[in-house]
Design a protein that fits this description.
The structure holds 3 protein chains of 3 kinds.
Chain A lengths: L1 H11 L2 H19 L5 H12 L4 H18 L1 H7 L10 H10 L3 H26 L3 H6 L3 H18 L4 H16 L1 E2 L6 E2 L13 H20 L13 H10 L1 H16 L4 H16 L12 H24 L5 H12 L7 H4 L2 H30 L6 H18 L4 H20 L4 H24 L7 H24 L15
Antiparallel strand pairs in A: 1-2
Chain B lengths: L2 E4 L6 H16 L7 H13 L11 E6 L6 H16 L5 E7 L5 H9 L8 E5 L1 H8 L12 E7 L3 E6 L7 H7 L4 E5 L7 H11 L2 E5 L5 H10 L4 E5 L3 H10 L3 E6 L2 E2 L4 E2 L14 H9 L6 H15 L2 E6 L4 H16 L1 H11 L4 E2 L4 H9 L3 H15 L6
Chain C lengths: L2 H24 L4 H32 L16 H10 L14 H25 L1 H15 L6 H20 L10 H4 L2
Helix pairs in contact in C: 1-2, 4-5, 5-6
Classes of the chains: A mainly alpha, B alpha+beta, C mainly alpha.
């Protein structure tokens, strides 16, 4: 296998293919950089061009794009507190507070560096696992997938500390929004008011922009200040890299976690960054600064979200079941290149699989280099006074929101969700749990239903289900136990009310 | 609901042009072996003989695919687009536009309501998944298929297989033991293409538990491989890559093929009735199990669903308000496309051996497709409402 | 009662009503589609009522409802805590220069900003996104940011150019609008 791996590297290093790869990376960086646009938009841009290309070049183009979306999407997450795409939702938790402290460049530097490391670890894991992954995925039936969704939901317990009731309510609200549209197991439309826009639910980009971007823009103008509360940028990109190296084991840990979550079909991809964030927060020493600008809160999810892309390719390539919109479209792109995903990808088309692995690794290096060069300039955005920056942001966000489905409903939903998000922000309801509930509602419902109809209540006794259940308990109650051990809780005072979102 | 445009508009061509130029430059240096040069050569050939009096001369033709990019219908449309561009008289720019959502309803509605049909620059490529909601009287659907004209029909085959560890290793064993087994099948929602299979299992007298809520054929196939399901089906495009390996490994044992509907009989399938599958059709297996050929309303329903779901699975539609010359020239384009030897060889590889209907074969096929007598429609909906909790649209 | 507390109590009540409505609606769904929304709505109503009551109780007892989870970046940040702290003397008014200003003023400015956003969306609806964006940028920068002419003009020009370039290159599409026939971009 190593020999064929080397041959595949030679194929991937062909200058023409590197050119295609670079082009893919360029498109990926653009769609990642613009908040609200993600891998699916990138795929839509590139798909028309792949027909008739040789498979390796086509793969370089498509994978190059997909690999770096989660590198570039860190910009809006850190600088604006708006998830740049679905993969960098959790980065805002600490990245944005860091930007407010004037540490934007440091956060970006760390994020890009660990993105690259995560991406390479992911590619390496893909290489190592591709031959072994089939039984792994076959061990995950609907009950296990349901427990994974619950594991994601349990992150709410980590995120909403000090606001348990509001956190749970926000999650439930998110779940109800997630249920809008066609029910997964029967031809029933729910809460659509017969309005075709709602038939497929509110798109995630609109949810993320509405919940986080609009409230932030309103408040920035209302408070009349710049994103950074200090007038000079402190840390540099290199400080960020040093931070990352100091936390190297965290990087490795969350990268592996990201790959593993990415492999889980159907559930993993959408919550991997939250889980990485939660795990980081629960496993490091002294997590008191999390949510207020702890660099490790950026390192964790950012290592995981690039590694995830490699993991998500495993079910996509081996079973033809895509884990996300991006990989779904990648499958279509492969068909156009004359490659049918399926078990044959390991048996007969190993060359293609290895080309994918190398493209992933190379694209991550290329994308990081580009982002790194940009970071210094872009970080300065956080110093511009809000009244001069916000109008431009509003235009960009509105355009981005409209790209979600290209329906007027996108803009209206953006406004409506934004208003709800703003009120939530003012009255101290955490918004991240709402996003998690929204993202996980469909899979939780689907897999619970499948588990019940296939196994009755017997599924509760499956070994992996029990393990995952215990893990959920540890995550939810672990912090309480930890905190109890540390001593009695303090009464919250002014200085303690940090920028939790 | 995701709507993605990927229309190679003329003014965006410079983008592709730059790409091609770059790749050409590299190829010229003798460093690459990419497809850039072939494409460019082809493009030159295209430009040479354009009929300037043709209806579609200097026009842009959009193929609306009411599904996400990357799906089966989308891949087929994207595969055909460059051939159509070459063969439709006047060589229009042909682009694929995905307007997905709500099982095709969003795309159908946009085609019906937001396109200028007299200009005939939009065609709809429907598949069974977006056509069946019309049969099942989906209240949100604004498109009436009776207002459309078919131009091209693409057929798909269906295969039903069971887990070999049930002890059933092929059609003969299936005939003997199928009725003694407890089957578990996985479907998406009852009003999808799966309705047809549910009906088939029911007619064969299989004790079956149909589990709804799978995200599509892929996840259902994984559940089958996991042993959660023991009977499953797939469409012909995914069989070579995904089902054949399972058959080779002795996990899946194929038992019958859906068959293809003609006037009022079920005919052999171009792929699954042949070597290496050699499967009996549903009608044959029915006769072997029950000792008599299928009949009655459920048989009529089966045939009608076969017609809509498989035999005429994908249809390229134009609105009937389109000028007659547009219809004529579009049909000519499809006819020329299917005669192109390059298309034939690539289509065989990509889409399978099933026939494509063009020219005079199209009208009777789409008329048969839309001819869904009220009593059959009602019978099917009763069947779904009573057995599978389908919300009654009537 | 501070504005923030009022908002929190009314928002909580509204959400309880929303859950009640979603649950009631769900009773009409097909059986398989009913379980999830009914369960979730029931949970929502229960927890929502408990929370609103707890908030009200906390307000009566401690004059504090928001807990420690209110976001620092919220415009109304800590308005209530500030009042409570000033009242019980734990915050020295002299030392409170970093503390937020009067929430009512901030709320008014926030509503103004929402007004601007709604105005922008209305402009998109009538004039199309290209014209509306240019117009919005110029007017907002002149009126709210009180900048000179240079930034608005250059900024709007660059933004619109950027939008046009994007739409050419990567399939960005613009919403349909009322005067499309007249303006036509």
């Amino acid at each position: 296998m190593f020999e064929s791996g080397y041959e595949a590297l030679l194929v991937a290093l062909d200058p023409l293919r590197l050119l295609w790869l670079a082009l893919g990376v360029l498109v990926g960086l653009c769609v990642g950089l613009l908040p609200g646009l993600g891998g699916t938009v990138g795929m839509a841009i590139l798909l028309p061009f792949v027909f008739g290309m040789d498979p390796y070049s086509g793969i370089a183009l498509l994978i190059g794009m997909a690999a770096v979306v989660h590198t570039a999407d860190t910009f809006p997450s850190v600088l604006l507190g708006v998830p740049g795409s679905s993969g960098s939702q959790a980065t805002i938790m600490d990245g944005y507070p860091l930007a407010q402290k004037g540490d934007a460049a440091r956060a970006l530097g760390a994020a890009f560096f660990v993105s690259m490391v995560g991406g390479i670890i992911g590619a390496a894991s893909l290489f190592a696992l591709i031959g072994l992954a089939r039984p792994l995925i076959l061990a995950l039936g609907p009950p296990e997938l349901f427990m994974c969704a619950i594991l994601g939901l349990s992150m709410v317990g980590v995120l909403a500390r000090g606001a348990a009731a509001a956190g749970v309510l926000a999650t439930l609200l998110g779940v109800m929004v997630g249920l809008i549209g066609l029910a997964p197991q029967v031809g029933q439309y729910r809460y659509t008011f017969e309005e075709p826009y709602l038939f497929d639910g509110i798109p995630i980009a609109v949810m993320a922009l509405g919940l986080f971007a609009l409230p932030e823009m309103v408040d920035l103008v209302a408070a009349d200040r710049s994103i950074s509360r200090v007038s000079k940028l402190a840390g540099s990109r290199l400080t960020g890299i040093r931070d990352a190296i100091r936390n190297r084991w965290l990087v490795v840990r969350t990268s592996v976690l990201g790959t593993a979550m990415g492999i889980i079909p159907g559930v993993g991809g959408s919550v991997v960054d939250w889980i990485a964030y939660g795990v980081t927060r629960q496993t490091v020493k002294d997590n008191s600064q999390f949510g207020k600008g702890d660099i490790r809160g950026v390192i964790g999810p950012e290592s995981a979200n690039n590694a995830k892309e490699a993991g998500a390719l495993v079910p996509t390539l081996l079973f033809g079941i895509p884990g996300s919109g991006t990989t779904a479209m990648l499958l279509g792109g492969l068909v156009l290149l004359g490659v049918q995903a399926g078990p044959a990808m390991v048996r007969d088309r190993l060359d293609v699989t290895l080309a994918i692995v190398w493209s992933l690794a190379l694209a991550n290096i290329l994308g990081t280099a580009a982002c790194f060069l940009l970071a210094g300039y872009v970080a300065k955005l956080s110093l511009i006074p809000a009244k001069k920056l916000v109008p431009f942001l509003l235009v960009i966000m509105t355009v981005a929101a409209y790209q979600a489905t290209r329906h007027w409903g996108d803009i209206l939903a953006f406004l409506a969700v934004g208003l709800v998000g703003w009120v939530m922000k003012q009255v101290g309801w955490p918004r991240a749990p709402m996003l998690i509930g929204y993202v996980l509602a469909p899979s939780a419902e689907r897999y619970l239903h499948l588990s019940m109809s296939l196994h009755g209540f017997d599924w509760l006794l499956r070994p992996l289900v029990i393990v995952l259940g215990l893990l959920v308990l540890v995550i939810v109650f672990g912090s309480q136990i930890f905190r109890l051990r540390r001593g009695k809780g303090r009464r919250p005072g002014l200085g303690d009310m940090a920028g939790r979102m | 609901m995701m709507r993605t445009y990927s229309f190679p508009r003329r003014h965006r061509r410079w983008f592709l042009g730059v790409l091609c130029a770059a790749s050409l430059a590299l190829t010229a240096c003798g460093t690459g072996d990419g497809g850039g040069d072939d494409e460019a050569a082809e493009a030159d050939g295209e430009q040479s003989q354009v009929d300037e009096s043709a209806f579609y001369y200097d026009k842009e033709l959009e193929i609306i695919v009411p599904f996400e990019a990357g799906g089966g219908t989308d891949s087929e449309a994207r595969f055909m687009a460059p051939f159509l561009q070459e063969h439709i008289p006047g060589s229009p720019t042909v682009g694929v536009v995905n307007i997905s959502g709500a099982a095709g309803t969003i795309g159908n509605n946009q085609f019906a309501l937001e396109r200028e049909h007299t200009e005939a620059t939009s065609v709809l490529y429907s598949s069974a998944s977006s056509f069946l909601p019309w049969i099942f009287e989906e209240p949100a659907l604004e498109l009436n298929y009776d207002d459309l004209v078919g131009n091209f029909v693409s057929q798909v085959g269906g295969i039903v297989y069971v887990r070999c560890d049930t002890g059933i290793d092929g059609p003969e064993a299936f005939v003997e033991q199928a009725q003694d087994m407890q089957w578990v099948a996985g479907e998406q929602t009852p009003d999808s293409l799966g309705a047809h299979l549910l009906l088939a299992y029911d007619m064969l007298g299989l004790e079956h538990n149909a589990v709804m809520g799978f995200e599509g054929r892929g996840p259902a196939r994984v559940a089958f491989e996991q042993g959660e399901l023991n009977i499953n089906w797939d469409t012909s495009p995914s069989v070579p890559s995904d089902v054949d390996p399972l058959i080779e490994d002795g996990v899946a044992c194929p038992v019958f093929t859906i068959g293809q509907a003609s006037e009022d009989t079920l005919e052999a399938d171009a792929m699954f009735s042949e070597e290496p599958y050699n499967l009996p059709t549903f009608a044959e297996i029915y006769e072997q199990i029950h000792g008599e050929p299928p009949s009655g309303p459920e048989w009529d329903a089966y045939l009608a669903l076969t017609r809509a779901g498989w035999t005429n699975q994908k249809v390229m539609w134009l609105h009937k308000d389109a000028p007659p010359e547009a219809v004529e020239q579009l049909r000519a384009g499809f006819e020329a496309m299917t005669e192109d030897p390059e298309f034939q060889s690539q289509a065989e590889e990509l889409l399978g051996p099933h026939p494509k209907l063009v020219g005079d074969d199209v009208d009777p096929a789409v008329d048969g497709l839309r001819d869904f007598p009220e009593d059959i429609r009602n019978w099917i909906m009763d069947f779904l409402v009573e057995n599978y909790d389908h919300p009654d649209p009537r | 009662m501070p504005l923030q507390t009022k908002m929190r109590l009314s928002f909580g009540t509204l959400i309880v009503l929303v859950f009640a409505w979603t649950g009631w609606q769900a009773l009409d769904f097909a059986e398989l589609a009913r379980y999830m929304p009914v369960t979730m709505s029931a949970l929502g109503v229960t927890i929502g009522i408990v929370m609103v009551l707890t908030d009200a109780f906390n307000w009566k007892r401690r004059r504090l409802t928001t807990g420690d989870d209110v976001s620092e970046t919220a415009a109304l940040y800590g308005a209530e805590e500030r009042e409570a702290a000033l009242r019980d003397g734990s915050l020295d008014p002299e030392a409170a220069d970093d503390a937020p200003e009067d929430p009512r003023k901030v709320a008014r400015r926030s509503i103004m900003m929402f007004g601007w956003i709604v105005g922008y969306v209305l402009a998109i609806w009538v004039l199309g996104i290209l014209v509306a964006s240019a117009l919005f940028l110029v007017v907002f920068l002149l009126v709210v940011a009180r900048s000179g002419w240079l930034l608005p003009v250059i900024g709007a020009a660059l933004t619109v150019t950027g939008m046009l370039v994007l739409s050419e290159l990567i399939n960005i599409e613009w919403p349909p609008y009322l005067l499309e026939g007249v303006i036509g971009i």
